[in-house]
Amino acid sequence: MDKSKIKEQVKTEFTAYLTLHKHRKTPERFAILEHIYSTKGHFDMDSLFKSMNNNSFRISRATLYNTIELLLDCGLVVKHQFGANVSQYERAYGNENHDHLICISCGEVKEHKNGNLFTPTQQKKLQRFKISYYSMYIYGICGKCLKSKAKQDVKSNTKNNNITDKKK
Ligand SMILES: [Zn+2]
Ligand SMILES: [Zn+2]
Question: Pairing relation of β-strands 137-140 and 109-113?
Fold first, then answer.
């Protein structure tokens, strides 16, 4: 599905949701939705607040938080908690299935596109459950951290030749 079609569709869904729950359909709320669906990847509230207010639109933190709650509630935005990091969000619609590779050393989160986790036969076994999307959290050490750890190990090994490395 192309981008403008997705935006159109999420706008329609959000409108229906706001009407159903008798929430006001303010231009700010739609500007936030539009902004989120124009952004790729994850964001936290602080970065969203900053990037939104770089645009001509001025949006208060209260409006932002309140709108995110609504978007989570109607399923247009997904919330993630990667380890001990602050909550991160991403759009739910038109986002390909992907895994999250989370570095337990520096906290960096990378996305990894996956194919289909379930073959059609496997999906059939999930009785009365239609999968919309899934995302996996994979914890480990990123390339950068592995590299700097290797450097440190070499250093400490040459410095403390007699001391055995306790980390091993
Ligand atoms: Zn790392
Ligand atoms: Zn993601």
Answer: unpaired
Domain that holds residue 19: 1-95
Which amino acid belongs to residue 13? E
* Domain's final residue, options 44, 76, 95: 95
49 Cα: distance to centroid of ligand 2 (angstroms): 19
pLDDT, tens digit (0-9, with 9 covering 90-100), for 97-108: 788 999 999 988
What integer pLDDT is reported at residue 168 of this predicted model?
46
Q: Are residues 78 and 2 part of one domain?
A: yes
Are 103 and 82 in contact, with CB atoms under 8 Å apart?
A: no
Same domain, 151 and 73: no
Residue 131 DSSP label: -
Tell me, in angstroms, the distance from the centre of ligand 2 to residue 42's CA: 6
Give this prediction's pTM: 0.74
**140 CA to centre of ligand 1 in angstroms:** 8
Among all ligands shown, which has an atom nearest to the Cα of 102?
1
Q: Are residues 105 and 78 in the same domain?
A: no
> What count of other Cβ atoms lies within 10 Å of the Cβ of residue 80?
16
Around ion ligand 2, residues with a beta carbon closer than 5 Å are 90, 111
pLDDT in tens, 11-69: 999 999 999 999 999 999 999 999 999 988 889 999 999 988 876 678 899 999 999 99
The chain-wide mean pLDDT, for the chain, equals 85
- Together in a domain, 71 and 118: no
